[in-house]
Design a protein that fits this description.
binds ligand EPZ; four-stranded mixed β-sheet; elongated; alpha/beta
Length: 428
């Protein structure tokens, strides 16, 4: 089991460089199957989820090389040798289901085990299947597998998403690049990672307009070509460092970001009394930490609303605020599992259905959070425990950091360079 040992109470100073976005890299790897040519993907983050996505691509027939030093992945899928993805592979991450759209596009057939992922909610795939059905594919669910068949090939369709699902928008967009005719996705997700995927597909020769809005139009093409593409910076990794500095205090510069993508986080941090200065490709965060943070209310929403992937990190920050904050999670039904572990550190958080009521440190005699052993239950919840541990008095051991390593590359190393007392080690 991998563990972070953290001695809290130290402010963060200096600068940190952000990697490419996990949630753009994963659909882009799946979309690379749409061409037989070579694709070169730059700014590729070094993450467990990326490794597992490439493992599945390799199972399907892709050849890939990873240049870790330069964060480049070369991927080439000259032929598909496997259109069936078993549970052992698919269960490694939810994004495995994005290969469904790619395989439907390329050879009209896929059999894939139901996706895995963080236990933050039911995470159904009904909207993905709705889109595939409307485009002419038959879906059969049996024994934990979904088999999709489009013997006549895919055709354009108008798909209304009952919820602006990120994954369903991506899967349908990928499949539609090969459908005969035009596909329109209504009530589409508008996250920056959707735009990045659309930009990548257009670089490959796809005809897509409207990505980043609630209506995306895709005109199918016979063949897509290889390309060279740099993945967009990870707005959630960046936001995690911003929330950490807000919680423990200090002055950090977060580099290699797109400040526009950080806007919801920047604006809420400013509401909380934390200074955020924006540059062209960096943000600077200055905070007095505990006792100088103002309580705020947060409601997670689809982009450009406040990102659900920053909900846990902000809860950890707001345990240091002067007063009570309300955090409402509207996207996933089970995304407060980490709260119990925060309360073991001394936080006072009550859950009321989808709202966390976070008591702050308004009473001076209120103790600091106090270090102890805690367990990560999912990726972003784990990041929240790290932020709380940085604010706590004494030593905290965060266990199961494998969850964290799915979405953060060398989080401990980067925090250590900012002055945190944190080491990562493996306990057998
Ligand atoms: C993507 O997950 C991200 N993962 C998640 O990030 C992120 O939290 C989420 O989008 C929302 O922004 C990747 O991109 C790999 P959804 P996804 O489909 O696509 C419901 C992280 O921490 N829904 O937008 O699975 C679903 O139940 C991860 O990096 C349906 O009802 O999210 C949920 O309530 C966690 N039917 C809501 O939509 C469907 O067919 C949002 O899910 C699909 C989804």
């Amino acid at each position: 089991m991998n563990i972070y040992k953290i001695n809290g109470g130290r402010t963060l100073r200096g600068s940190v460089e952000i990697d490419g976005a996990k949630n753009a890299a994963l659909p882009i790897i799946a979309a690379s199957l749409l061409t037989k040519d070579v694709c070169l993907l730059g700014n590729m983050p070094k993450l467990k989820d990326v490794d597992n996505m490439l493992l599945i691509a390799g199972h399907i027939g892709s050849n890939f090389d990873c240049d870790i030093t330069n964060s480049i992945v070369r991927i080439e899928t000259s032929k598909i040798i496997n259109s069936e993805i078993g549970y052992n592979l698919a269960a490694k991450l939810r994004a495995s289901f994005l290969f469904a759209g790619a395989l439907l596009a390329v050879n009209g057939y896929v059999k894939i085990a139901m996706p895995g992922g963080c236990d933050i909610g039911l995470r159904p795939i009904d909207l993905h299947l709705k889109g595939f059905n409307l485009m002419g594919a038959e879906a059969v669910k049996d024994g934990g597998f979904v088999t999709l068949n489009a013997p006549m090939g895919l055709h354009g369709a108008e798909v209304y998403l009952d919820f602006p699902s990120v994954g369903a928008t991506e899967n349908i967009m990928i499949a539609a690049t090969a459908a005969a005719g035009k596909t329109t996705i209504k009530n589409a997700a508008a996250e920056p990672e959707i735009v990045d995927l659309a930009n990548y597909l257009c670089e490959m020769g796809a005809d897509i307009v409207g990505a980043g809005s609630d209506t995306i139009e895709i005109k199918g093409k016979k063949q897509l070509r290889g390309t060279i593409y740099n993945i967009v910076p990870d707005r959630i990794e960046a936001g995690t460092f911003m929330a950490a500095a807000g919680a423990v205090g200090g002055d950090i510069t977060v580099k290699k970001v797109n400040p526009v993508h950080l806007e919801p986080v920047t604006l809420k941090l400013r509401e909380a009394g934390i200074t955020v200065e924006e540059g062209s490709d960096f943000v600077r965060v200055i905070s007095g930490g505990r006792g100088s943070v103002r309580p705020i209310d947060i409601r997670t929403l689809p982009y450009p609303g406040f990102p659900t992937d920053m909900q846990a990190q902000m809860t950890a920050l707001l345990t240091q605020a002067n007063g009570t904050s309300l955090i409402t999670e509207t996207i996933f039904e089970n995304r407060f599992q980490y709260v119990g572990e925060l309360n073991r550190l001394g936080a006072v958080i009550k859950l009321n259905e989808r709202t966390a009521v976070v008591s702050g440190v308004e009473k001076k005699e209120k103790p600091f959070l106090t270090g102890t052993a805690v367990e990560a239950t999912d990726l972003r919840g784990g990041a929240a425990l790290v932020i709380a541990a940085l604010s706590a008095k004494g030593e905290t051991r965060v266990c199961n950091t494998e969850f964290i390593e799915r979405g953060y590359s060398d989080l401990a190393g980067k925090l250590s360079l900012l002055g945190a007392d944190i080491i990562s080690y493996r306990e057998c």
